[in-house]
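Appendix B, record 7
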Amino acid sequence: MSLNSQMFHIVRIKEVKVNAAGNSPNTDGIHVQLSRNVAIFNTSIKTGDDCVSIGPGTKDLWIEQITCGPGLGIRIKSWARPSNGFVLGVQFLDVVVFNVQNPILLFGGEKFGFSPSWVGEGLIDQNYCPHNINCPAQVSGVKVSDVIYRNIQGTSAIAVTIKFDCSATNLCSGIRLGNVSLTCRNQEVQSHCANAIGKIVGTVQPNSCLQY
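C-alpha cells (predicted):
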C-alpha cells in the first residue's frame, strides 16, 4: 500500500543501461530524492559524474549488482554550509574498484580550494563546495553517522585510497571499516582522516586513521 505519496514511495529499477562520456560533468546516471523503498538492481551506469546520486528525503534505498564507471568512487559528500540534515545507517558492502580516484571518500567540513565537481574524490567529504561559491570558510551542518564499509577490494589511481574529511564542528561518527584491501600501482597506499570517529573490524589496507 502506498498512502498520501507526494513524490514516490515504491520504485524498482532493474537491468537499465546508462551511458555518457567519461569527461562529461554533471551527468549523474540515476538520482534518488524524496523517496523511500527504492531498489536498483543489475544495472550498468557509465557516466562522467555520479553513477547513483542520493538526495534529501531518501529512506530505505537498496542498490545491488551495479557496474559503475568511469564515474566516481563510493562517497558521501555534504555542502560546507549550515544544515539540519543527516546521513544515517549507510552500508557499502562487497564493492570491487578498478583504478579509481579515491575509492572511499567522505567529506563535510570547512572548504578551501576544490576542483570541479566531476573530478574524482574520496569517501566522505563534508567540505563540498564546487568552485568555492556560496560556502567558503563555512562548515557542514549535516550529521554523518553509522556508516559501514565492508569487503571493499581493488586498485586506486592515487595513493590516498581512503579519505574521511569531516567537519571540525560536526564530526563523523560510528564509521566502520572491515575487510578493506586497496592498492595503488608502484605506490604505498595511504589513508587520510579529519574529525572522523570509528573502528576497524578485520583487516584494512591502508592502515586506518580513524579516531577511536
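Remarks on this record: Residues 72-212 form one domain. The chain has no helices and 15 strands.
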